[in-house]
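Reproducibility note. Readers wishing to regenerate the assembly model reported in the main text can use the exact inputs given here. Chain order matters: entities are listed in the order in which they were concatenated for prediction.
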Amino acid sequence: MAKQIIETDSVVVKFVGDSGDGMQLSGTLFSDAAALGGNDIATFPDYPAEIRAPHNTIAGVSGYQVHIGSHIYSSGDKCDFLVAMNPASFRSNLKWAKKGATIIVDIDTFTDEAMTKAGYTSNPFTDELEREYTIVKAPVTSFTKRIGEEKGADLKTSEKCRNMFALGIIFYVTNKSLKQTETYLERKFAKKPAVVELNKAVLREGYEYAEKLELIHSHIVEVSHAKMPDGKYRNITGNVATAWGLLAASERSGRQLFLGSYPITPATDVMVELAKHKSLGARVFQAEDEIAGICSAIGASYAGALACTSTSGPGLSLKSEALGLAVMTELPLVVVDVQRGGPSTGLPTKTEQSDLNQALYGRNGEAPLIVVAASSSANCFYWAYTAAKLALEHMTPVILLTDGYLGNGSQLFRIPKVADLPGITPRLATPNDPNYRPFRRDEETFAREWAIPGMEGLRHRVGGLEKCPDGPLSTDPENHALMVHNRQEKVNRVANYIPDQEVTGDPNADLLVVGWGGTSGALTLAVEEMNKEGKKVAYTHFNYICPLPKNTGEILHKYKKIVVCELNNGQFAGYLRTQFPECPMKQYNKIMGLPFEVGELKDCFTKILGE
Amino acid sequence: MAERHFVPKADKEYTKADFQSDQMVKWCPGCGDHAILASLLATFPKTGHKKENICMVSGIGCSSRIPYYVDTYGFHSIHGRACAIATGVKLANPSLSVWVNMGDGDSMAIGGNHLIHAVRRNQDLNITIFNNEIYGLTKGQYSPTTKFGQVTKTSPYGTIDYPFNPGELVMGAQGTFFARALDCVPQLTTSIMTRAAQHDGTSVVEVLQNCMIFNDKTHAAITDRAVRDDRTIILEHGKPMIFGKDKNKGIRFNGRCLEAVTIGENGITMDDIMIHDETTEDTGIHMMLARMSGDLPVAIGVIRNVKKTSYTQLYEDQMDECKATGKYHCVDDLLNSGDTWIVE
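Running the prediction on these inputs yields the following structure tokens for the assembly.
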């Protein structure tokens, strides 16, 4: 059969294998090549909590999904191409392949032993399966071994290149050039020319193997190029974007960046990234525990830094008391919570939005603070920047919620100029100001002034005990009531400085879809597709969580039906109900450690429209 | 590596009164904390540091009220976390002279983890532990330093907890400076605190402090005037370890352990008496000295004072090195680094 190229708007490719099979690298190389070749992309790594679970078991399966196309909102639901490097990964991921998908397996790994370990009792490649999918049984291991022998590499080295063979096949079926990946390999292993040669040879062998394979000649795709606004682009993960947003805020505000953190999945990469940038003035401190992470940041904030701490759910729990101290001392602080499945240790490597209540309410006493949420891997940059701006200008801790999906996932990022970002004006006190009082407030924002140790004539004490506006301790009942009110009012007034909430979709919609944080990709696509089908659905997505934009009530009152969609049991819905009890709200919730799929959302919205 | 000093010197001479705040001191009359405060206030002028560059950080407990009574910058934080907060203060602004004040429960129970890690890092912090062997602010529960078997409100049948010795903790965590002081000898406390301030790295000063309400006379067996000279020994670097009312007792290392001996008895001469060397890197002898009790006099003064490049200096050297050699000079450089492409 002659080679046929199918033009399409988007394609989802998923690489799965044993952890250690190099699936994360294959995925990254493929997405980078696609992006450089002009596609929009979104990626989502899916890896086990264990670094190396037992070989060939389902527990050890590691995956990396790449969605490429002309306009990509999410890493996609099910895949068009599945690469499975062993029986366990094939078995656990078959359900993520679209009907009719092309599946490439390393047939050499389908030994009786490995199949038994994966839970197969009979040949997995049934006639029925072969009818439903195009299954390419590629001898990946033996081909790779042969090339290794030709190149004089030892067995261990050549086995590590198996992922390149699979990648070569994928490059062929997506009609992409090997150039970009070859250049990457040359750069990465510059000091080991033999390794470069071997990897390049295996990659090419995979490509040529596919070229000769008639079975897939009718499945080759050419994905349309992205129609993106002009500009300079790069690929970026959410955690790196968060780190860079904080760096940019530090540069714009003139305050030194301090990060006090403790390693925790999936937030660690924020610290890992910032630790590289001492040359840009980032002061990173790996603390002895989560509490010392935030406490060192509070100390740094008192000493005048743009202070941050990064964590995930269990770590945020540990930081609760110190967060209260930051609220009480009214010091600027950014807390990044890259949410994961909970409670307790929960699902460390899986995504969820279930820390919202903790962020909003998880402290003793009346302890309001600002909560914002990023909604894409790339916009983690802007939300980290915004969190820092709000903290510095309003003298308050700010919690930035991202999640494992955003943090580990990657996306195209249009590179801004730091000078074009909104300015940041920290509320610095004036040295020797005779009228300085620790809790004197700005009339508009209610923010206090920041007097930094070292400044002359402003010596003062702060702490966790209630103070009066002039600074000294006070247990006076009226004073406490006043200070509680002022701290709340300060956070409430942030609403005067944030933009109105926007609604997209059908202006005459019957149903308003409400989302927040990391789910915007799937929600946007679901609503867009339904609008194209003529369904009357509108959509609003929240990034400012506390305080809410001022027009939130006005929007919610406009629609007959509202559905709040979130990856938890209804925490944002509950929060909205406390403020707008008159608005009836339905919920769509998913607590499986997985992002939303467009299909399930559309089914839900269609059902509600029909009710 | 060149030694660096980060805290600016004052351009004037201060007196103790310059550091007294206008706040009413609210400790119980007769509390040992008053004397420690006085010692601290007398120490600051001796450090020569600019007043604006001194920052007090405390946790929670009676002693942790101290920042309110000192006219410098101050942070009265939360229970156990003073070391962690101080670490951030000093890291963000190395030009500050940072003083951490905690009680025994604050520093070694709820804050034990932060204490050992602060000591291990050897950042330039001055830590004072007010050790009264009891929880005073919560009215008399046993602490990690309460004597074994002692009856307190939460140990009505006597504690069965073996207590910590702060000196052992510090040395176990590779501490570079440890000293012990007595609240009832404030001039000595001031001189010890002054030496602690001069130390580059983390210094820990344990002050044996009396809580007359909930643990009165807990240190009396060694601090009472009648017995003090025989029950304590003031260690001085380079000098023989002599103690006793008649200055005729000394400490000898018998090859196995330390022992108290009387000069002139059993053939003991001054040559048998150990000379105190606070600078020995090995913690062995310092650990033994810090543990002395019972038949041996309790060691007072600077027990250990070892030179080791401080975390503060290592951090600043690394920052300077990275700034001088780093690829990126502004965030725009970083944003545009690596693989990028133009869409037109």
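We highlight two features of this model. The domain at 16-218+310-325 of chain B is CATH 3.40.50.970 (Rossmann fold). The first strand of chain B starts at residue 54 and ends at 58.
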